[in-house]
């Protein structure tokens, strides 16, 4: 089954189940950028992935967000030397993501500001632009995402992460997100 056919089948099952309706957009948005740090989006990093297209889309989104004054929040995932968390046992290559290194700072192409909060996480979840799976786990407030600005290590987990549309939030095109943010300012 091809990706388009599979997507249509999932969409139809969700429609029949009565899930996947659009989330109402409020008037006071904030934008969360999940784990778009140098150590994650730079393929030269041990665990880095080539997300150049997603970083470019995120940079475009950030320019609009910053111009509108909508609150911005980045997250970073990091470890401390000597930790033995479940996450580090599962993904020991992530042990290099340590406080004080550029690997845990927002990717330089995003022109991060010291005024923008950077909460630290010790596992792949946050409280959405970013890595698809981590972003899916950050859905407690029923937000929406642009698939253009989401990426992951491989296509399969990326597609699985985008099932956000079914129960958690809305997956919207970047242009729709930009239009909404301009209007919300």
Head-to-tail CA distance between termini: 43 Å
Radius of gyration from CA coordinates: 17 Å
Q: So what's the CATH class?
A: Alpha Beta
What is the number of helical segments per DSSP (H or I, 4+ residues)?
8
Question: How many strand segments?
Answer: 7
Number of domains: 1
- Tell me the β content: 5-15%
Assign the CATH superfamily: Isochorismatase-like
* Major sheet: arrangement of strands: 3-2-1-4-6
Largest sheet: 5 strands, parallel
The 3D shape can be described as: globular
Strand and helix order: HEHHEHEEHEEHHEH
Report the average pLDDT across residues: 76
Instruction: Look at the helices and sheets and give the structural class.
Output: alpha/beta
Q: Which fold does the CATH topology refer to? A: Rossmann fold
Helix content: 25-40%
Question: Can you walk through the features of this model?
Answer:
The chain is an alpha/beta fold and 185 residues long. It has one domain: 3-Layer(aba) Sandwich (Rossmann fold). Helices cover 37% and strands 11% of the residues. The chain has eight helices and seven strands; from the N terminus they run αβααβαββαββααβα. The strands form two sheets. A five-stranded parallel β-sheet has the order 3-2-1-4-6. α4 (86-90) links the parallel β2 (72-77) and β3 (120-121). α3 (52-68) runs parallel beside α8 (174-184). The longest helix is centred in the N-terminal third of the chain and has 17 residues, at 52-68.
């Amino acid at each position: 089954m091809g990706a388009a056919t599979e997507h249509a089948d999932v969409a139809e099952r969700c429609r029949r189940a009565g899930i996947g309706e659009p989330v109402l957009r409020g008037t006071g948005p904030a934008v969360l950028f999940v784990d778009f740090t140098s150590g994650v989006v730079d393929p030269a990093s041990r665990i880095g992935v080539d997300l150049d297209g997603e970083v470019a889309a995120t940079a475009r989104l950030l320019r609009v967000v910053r111009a509108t004054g909508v609150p911005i929040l980045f997250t970073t995932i990091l470890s401390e030397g000597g930790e033995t968390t479940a996450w580090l046992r599962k993904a020991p290559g992530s042990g290099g993501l340590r406080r004080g290194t550029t690997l845990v700072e927002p990717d330089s192409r995003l022109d991060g500001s010291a005024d923008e909060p950077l909460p630290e996480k010790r596992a792949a979840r946050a409280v959405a632009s970013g890595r698809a799976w981590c972003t899916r786990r950050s859905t407690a407030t029923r937000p929406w995402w642009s698939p253009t600005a989401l990426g992951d290590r491989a296509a399969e987990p990326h597609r699985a992460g985008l099932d956000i549309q079914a129960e958690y939030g809305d997956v919207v095109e970047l242009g729709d997100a930009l239009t909404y943010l301009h209007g919300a300012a």
